[in-house]
Design goal:
By secondary structure, the protein is of the alpha/beta class. The protein has one domain (2-128): Leucine Aminopeptidase, subunit E, domain 1. It contains four helices and six strands. The protein starts with a strand and ends with a strand.
């Protein structure tokens, strides 16, 4: 599964799921959005903070989620699955009620943190929590 984590636009993966992605899964330092990682494990950096690690408007996060969904739809053709963490709900400063609905158009190859099930419902599959 491709690990999807909240990032900052500068790709400084210093804390939370981003740190885990960098240290354990090979997410590349300096890649703040998109597919990153090594040949044996891929990640997707989804920016929920700015270049200087500042908070960004929810509308910017929404655009990043839209780009992620387009990517996930493309990768569905390759039978890839995405393990989506609670992006933006920790260090990003947003609530799950703000972020989870942004993923309602996600394809079936996306698996979500169980903390979002009460919002996204039974249409999606869930993997656990980070």
């Amino acid at each position: 599964m491709i690990f999807v984590f909240g990032s900052n636009k500068a790709g400084i993966h210093g804390a939370g799921a981003a740190r885990y992605a960098h240290r354990m899964l090979g997410a590349k330092w300096g890649i703040g959005e998109g597919i990153t990682g090594g040949p044996s494990s891929l990640c997707y950096a989804l920016p929920t903070k700015g270049f200087k690690i500042e908070f960004i408007p929810l509308e910017e996060v929404k655009h990043s989620v839209t780009r992620f969904i387009e990517c996930a739809e493309y990768w569905a053709l390759r039978n890839a699955e995405f393990k989506v963490t609670q992006v933006g709900c920790g260090l990003g400063g947003f609530t799950k009620e703000q972020i989870a609905p942004l993923f309602e158009a996600a394809p079936d190859n996306c698996y979500f943190d169980t903390e979002w099930k009460d919002i996204l419902g039974d249409r999606f599959q869930y993997w656990g929590t980070f």
